[in-house]
Amino acid sequence: LILHELASNALQHGSLSVASGRVELGWKTHGRKGTRRLVLTWRETGRPQVEPPDRHGFGSILIRRGLTKVISSAVKHEFRPDGVFAEISMPLEDLPK
């Protein structure tokens, strides 16, 4: 759901709203058994300078708080000058199989 919200925002307001825009989606794992984490990264580029919004709507709240209520996750959501950046880190062992 969080990735869908990021994609929707990119299409409407972000890098995917212009022909030169791009989104880089990556993932990695780190840590040892029992403490391993899955880290997803979302990076938008190719759009004129990004300004943080004046207010945060439901979508931004969903992105920032969506997983923290369910599993022990951390979400970084930043409006950087070169594009939106998000990093979602969650315990790998807690994910449903």
Architecture overview:
- The chain has 97 residues and is α+β, with helices and mostly antiparallel strands.
- The protein has one domain: Histidine kinase-like ATPase, C-terminal domain (Heat Shock Protein 90, 2-Layer Sandwich), CATH 3.30.565.
- 20% of the residues lie in helices and 35% in strands.
- The protein has two helices and four strands; from the N terminus they run αββαββ.
- A hairpin with a 6-residue loop joins strand 1 and strand 2.
Note the topology.
Layout: H1 2-12, E1 22-30, E2 37-45, H2 58-65, E3 74-80, E4 83-91
Antiparallel strand pairs: 1-2, 2-4, 3-4
List the keywords.
97 residues; Heat Shock Protein 90; alpha+beta
**CATH T-level topology:** Heat Shock Protein 90
Strand order of the largest sheet: 1-2-4-3
Which series of helices and strands comes N to C? HEEHEE
Strand content: 35-45%
The N- to C-terminal Cα distance equals 18 Å
What's the CATH class, please?
A: Alpha Beta
Q: What is the count of β-strands?
A: 4
Average pLDDT value? Answer: 84
- Derived from helix and strand composition plus strand pairing, the structural class reads alpha+beta
Task: Output the CATH homologous superfamily.
Answer: Histidine kinase-like ATPase, C-terminal domain
Radius of gyration: 14 Å
